[in-house]
Structures are given as structure tokens and as C-alpha cells.
Amino acid sequence: MGTATGIIRALNSGIKHLAVKRFTLRYPEEKLKFVGDGYQFDPSTGVGIAGLKGRHMLFHDHCTGCQLCSIACEGVAEAIAMVKVPEDQKQNKKSIMPQIDYGKCVFCGLCVDACPFYALYMTNDYELSSFSKEGLIYTPAQLQVKPFVSQDSEIQITDRGASHG
Amino acid sequence: MTAELPPGLALQKVDERIMTLNVGPQHPGSGHMRLIVQIDGDYIVACDPDPGYVHRGEEKMAEYRNYILNIPHLERPVIHDSCNVLYPYVLGVEELLGIEVPERAKYVRVIASELNRCIYTMYWLAIYGIFLGHSTMFMWPAGDRELLIDLMEKMTGARVTHAYFVPGGVRNDLPPNFEDVCLRQVNYFEKRIKEYADIFYDNPILISRTRDTGVLSRQDAIRLGTTGSVLRASGVDFDLRKKEPYDVYDELDFKTNVLKEGDSYARSKIPWLDMLESCQIIRQALKKMPKSGSVRVKLKPNPKGKLDSVYKRVESGRGSLGCYIVSDGKPEPYRLKMSVGSFRNLIALPYLLKGEKLGNMPSVYWSLNYWPVEADR
A88: Cβ–Cβ under 8 A, 6 or more apart, which residues? Predict the structure, then answer.
């Protein structure tokens, strides 16, 4: 193949892309859709359930304050601290529950694997930015809230290329 | 300046014609490393690679954590290839703990590993494009990589650093309807990367810049101990997926890509050909995978390894990646050593750059498939 033919073919390949759909996602307006409600774990079978590893969700009625999540996190990120919950919100005997520092968390999900009481799951919420370091520390009361997520964009493949439809 | 020097020290003799140039350590490519290059006019006389700026002590850290908690930090050296970098560790621990992995988990691992190899290679290709000043070749792979990242995100729950492989299988089963989505996106991905031939690999401008630069002969490639795409570009047929099949690679049909030239162009083409093979492997694995079954063996907490040592290696995106684990019967490994492809390929760089033009340095350096963070561990 001659040099001129090669360059023309390269240019032609680029020009063809004028007709291809835009692949990028306009992020704050459109958000990616994820499978499921976030990463969960079933201690009876020892297998997880697929989902995004985002912000945690804590079920106060299941948490016994056993500290297994905190022990698991010690070897990874040291993000989980066990804190005293107020007397009126007391659910378990020890009245301690995990508090997660998202400035340190690496979202590996090993704390979810460690929980034997179905108390700690992960959700699809990944927008955790804050103006201060203290804002990244989520108390047990904040972790109890189920996040509101509206995520609907999925990759769609058509004759004119792939796009986030 | 004669007699004041302390004993044992001597001034370096400086040639008037030679200039010493520091390339780096601020990100010459990806990650911090430095090349000390001596140039005579436009030609490189000598090159001294200086890695070690991103040493993280992964091997020492592994001695203080149990076999499960080692997973998140051991995949940090190469976050884009995190399944493959964890693979030898997981295989080794399984042998130490005496676990038999379910059949479905083996297939899921192969799919995850091949998807990750493509993700890594696309990232590498994007940077290779921008090193050569070809910005289209930066945009396209960076965009098409998203197709596979989306698959990994559905599979593992994270876009990079998946923490997906564990001793005993994988952490979670595939989401419902994953096979169809995977097949559709991998097919489209394959169609897309075939288009790169016109704009990049058959492009006369690229060929004129990379042909016959940094030639590594077959003998030198073996003598220097290079691995992966560098070795295969020099005409040595060596792929651990073929030579020492792990998990289910012996049941899958694929070929090893070998080129004879050993120059920068051949080294950049091998990963691209490998990606096309990876698409074949993923399609076959999806077809042959058992449709149901467990994907993880339940382990007791803090499993203890037997008194033994084990060495396992896999073919990663950058070549052979080995993991040597010594166990003394405790929940933590006594010693863990990683043998990585990046460091072995870097050894070839001084030989390749001697006599080259300085302008060819980026293309030769990045064609070695070198990842600084992995080399320093």
C-alpha cells in the first residue's frame, strides 16, 4: 500500500465518524443506570449479590454492635469506627454502631462480606462530595437513610454506533 | 577542586559533547519514574532507567493482613488490570488452603480477566497514541474502553479496583441477563477495534515513526528475560495461557500472536492482536460456562494455610506475573513476593535506546508495556 493511499484511508476512517452518534454521557443531567440496588451479601450461602459498591446503608434493627465490619476494615482502610448511639435510638445491647469515613473508604465491600446479620449493604449512591472533611463522616443515623437515586442511562448499540440512550 | 574530596569519592568526568537529560520523575508516561538519558546532539548515547518513586511496600504490607484482607491492596499496583494482578495470588492461596473452585467460578474469572486485559490495553493504547502525537488514537480507545468498564461495573460493582477475585472463587454471581449484554458489547467492541487498523496500525505516518526503531532481537529478548508482548514481538512463542494453562484456559481455543520484527511497531501491534483474541475467548467462555451453580466456596473466618510455599504465575496485560507465597501455618502469609512483567521489560530499555534519536524515545519507552507502579510494587 502506498503512502498516499494509506493517509487517505486514515482520513476516510476519521471522516466516517462524523455520522456516528455521540458516545459520551452528559453527566449531571444524565446518570448511568446500575444493576440492582447495590452490592449485598448473603451470609448463609457466602455469595454476594451483584450491584454497585457505593455508599453504605445500615439497618439499625439488625445491627448487634459486634464490630466485625470494623475489624475487617482495620486491615484495609480504617474507615469504620464504632460509635455510641444516643440512648433514645438504642437498638442493641452494646448501643454501638458503625460510623463510616468516606474520606478513607476504598469501597471494596469487605465490611459487607463480614456482616453475619444482614445489617450492612451498599447502595447505588456514589455522589458523596462535601465541602469539609467532617461532611464525609457518615454517622449511624445518616447511614440509615435510603438514598434517592434517579439513574436511567444505559449503553445502547445501534447501526450508527453506541451511545448512552 | 582537587584534594578536598572525601576518600572514596571522585568527580565524574564530563564529556563536552554529551548532555545529560532527566526525563521525569514527574509522570513521563503513567506513574512517576525517571529516565536519565545522555545525548550527543540528537542521538541517545546511554539511558539509565531509574524506577522506585512509587514504591508502596505491598509485599511487606501483605505479611500483616490475612488472606482475605490482602485483596484490596494487592490490586493497587495496576488498577486498570486489577483482576489479573490479583489472579496469581488467589491461585496460590487456593493451593495453600486446599480449596477446589467451582466450575462456574473458573469461567467467570476467565471472563473478568480477559475483560480486564482489554481495559488495560485500551488505556495503554490511548497513551501510546498521545505519546506519538496522534490525539484521535487517544480519544477513541479512551471512549471504547467505556464499553468494557460498563461490563465490569455490572459484574463487580466497581469501575476500577474491583476486588472481585477471592480464594475460593469470585465474590458475587453475574447479574441477571449479563450474558446477552456482554455478548452484544463485546461484539461491538471487536468491530470498533478492527477500525483502528485504518487510522493507526496501517497509517504510513505511524509506520515510518515506529518501524525499525528500538529493535530487540530474539536472542536478546530471551537473554534479558523480557516477557509478554515484548517477547512475542521478538518472535518467541510464549504465552502462559497456552504453556501453563490455569483455570479453564486449556478448554478454550485461541492462538498466540507472534511477530518476528522486534521493533517498536511490532511491540505496539501485539497487544492489539491480543485484544482481538480476548474477544474470542470471552465469547467461548460465555458459551461454555455452566448456566447455574455456586461461584464461591464458603471459607471459615481467618483461614490458615498449610506449612508450604507456592509459586503461581499468570499472563497479565504486561506479561508473566508471578506470586510466591510462603505460609507458616498462620492466617497471614509469612512472605509474599511478586514477580512482575513491567520490571522485567524495563531492563531492555537501555539496550533499545542506544543509538536512537531522542524523538523516538517516547514511542520505544511506552511500547515496552511498562507500568511504573507495578514495577515498584
Answer: none
